[in-house]
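Let us practice reading a record.
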Amino acid sequence: MPTNDEYWVALQQRICAKCVDGDGSGGCRIAPGHDCALGTHFPQIIETVNSVFSSSVEPYVEQLRKKVCAVCTGQSSEGACRLRDETECALDRYFPLIVQVIEETQLKKRLQT
């Protein structure tokens, strides 16, 4: 199993480099006082993706809502999220690619051993 550092590097290379809130080389340009959901919930994201195995993204999204969104300060107790609704949540925006990167990192690690 990859380490959290290995996951983080892979995610920065693939997600942060393409993020609309990034500088194009993996650096974050989110305004001061705002946090990137990918960084804030990183351990829970890894745990969530590792808890599912499916060829469809829907089971992953279902677990994301239960395990990560439910504890995020951006989501109301009714499950509504303004950031998600306005496509301002990087985690939600890039989640299918996040799942892909995590699973590819796992495969790469297995092939190395």
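A brief commentary: DSSP finds seven helices and no strands in the chain.
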